[in-house]
Design a protein that fits this description.
about 300 residues, alpha/beta, L-2-Hydroxyisocaproate Dehydrogenase, Chain A, domain 2, 2 domains, three-stranded antiparallel sheet, 14 strands, globular, binds nicotinamide-adenine-dinucleotide, NAD, Malate dehydrogenase, tricarboxylic acid cycle, EC 1.1.1.37, L-lactate dehydrogenase (NAD+) activity
Length: about 300
């Protein structure tokens, strides 16, 4: 198996490290900055003897090394600075995405695309339109990361392990994301039965602001450890054809009564990408929140530059 990671910055390089250390695929790392992907790949190669991995990691400014990839993860683009929303990146990152998708697809026509670049729902939508690929082969990072944050905050609040939590965060990877306490399970019980509504709201609010909280603390960078771990988890489900269910940014065609929009929903992942989209039995209020989130994404989609 061969995996390309485009963008050798914080998320991309950390992801490349996580993947090569798992030793199940060759990894090609690409970036526009001369020397960076080459140097980072060389550095990682020099850990193979110590860590014992046998797959190859290479770096380049050219897409030649990515030819024949099974999976292409796109992390190329600009990250937000303190005080910015992800949506403010739409113009600049759309230009970068178009170039990355065209160049990647030209040499890896059978690849599955995992989009990380923000605003991720809109960038995933753009990738589908530019590539004209079927929707099962293009999806984005959202709910695995947002759910991981929710699980971390619940673990602190209830004094349990984060791994005791099966979180459920759907909708936009942005200000309108929706936390579902009825579908967030802690040691077999829904969160809605474990904490009162004000506490549920506080946990939801911290999760919605989880990315901004890290940007505000770090100032010069956004999060990358949990994001890269989340993408590695998604890639692993594809590589092993596990069928594992996780919430990802996916293109809807009538699921949840929504069409022609990308938002975070539960999907089952396997070799072909998205095997199927899972429709949770949301009540009227829960569904209304998801629809409002889809409307927020539609506004960002409408702000995409024509070229
Ligand atoms: N979806 C999510 O949950 C999520 C999580 C974390 C980060 N992100 C997003 O991922 C993106 C990357 O974040 P980061 O922290 O790694 O940023 P970063 O600045 O550390 O790295 C981005 C890299 O992209 C490269 N790049 C820029 N234009 C390129 C092009 N045309 N071709 C190839 N490479 C190019 C840059 O040189 C840089 O190395 C940002 O847009 C960020 O907001 C999304
Ligand atoms: O917050 C950001 O801008 C990066 C990413 O979307 C995140 O949630 O960490």
């Amino acid at each position: 198996m061969k995996i390309t990671v485009v963008g050798a910055g914080n998320v991309g390089a950390t992801l490349a490290q996580r993947l090569i250390e798992k030793n199940f695929a060759d990894v090609a790392l690409v970036d526009v900055v001369e020397g960076i992907p080459q140097g980072k790949a060389l550095d990682m190669r020099q850990s193979a003897n110590t860590l014992g991995f046998t797959h190859k990691i290479t770096g380049s400014n050219s897409y030649d090394i990515t030819a024949g990839s099974d999976i292409v993860v796109v992390t190329a683009g600009i990250a937000r600075k303190p005080g910015m929303t992800r949506d403010e990146l739409v113009g600049i990152n759309a230009k970068i995405l178009r170039e990355v998708i065209e160049k990647s697809l030209a040499v890896s026509p059978h690849a599955i695309f995992v989009i990380v670049t923000n605003p991720v729902d809109t960038m995933t939508y753009l990738t589908l339109k530019v590539s004209k690929l079927p929707r099962n082969r293009v999806f984005g990072l959202s709910g695995v990361l947002d759910g991981g944050r929710l699980a971390a905050f619940i673990a602190e609040e209830l004094n349990v392990n984060a791994s005791d939590v099966t979180p459920c965060v759907m909708g936009e990877h942005g200000g309108s994301m929706v936390i579902y306490p009825r579908f967030t399970i802690v040691n077999g019980k829904p969160l809605s039965e474990l904490v009162d509504e004000p506490k549920q709201k506080a946990l939801a609010e911290r999760t919605v602001n989880g990315g901004a909280e890290i940007v505000a603390i770090m100032k010069t960078s956004s999060a990358f450890y949990a994001p890269s771990a989340s993408v590695a988890h998604m890639v692993n489900a594809v590589a092993t054809d596990s069928g594992a269910m996780m919430n990802c940014a996916a293109y809807l065609e009538s699921e949840y009564g929504l069409s022609d929009v990308v938002i975070g929903v539960p999907v089952k992942l396997g070799r072909g990408g998205i095997k199927n989209i899972v429709e949770l039995p949301l009540n009227a209020e829960e569904l209304a929140a998801l629809k409002a989130s889809a409307e927020a994404v539609r506004k960002t989609i409408a702000a995409l530059p024509a070229q």
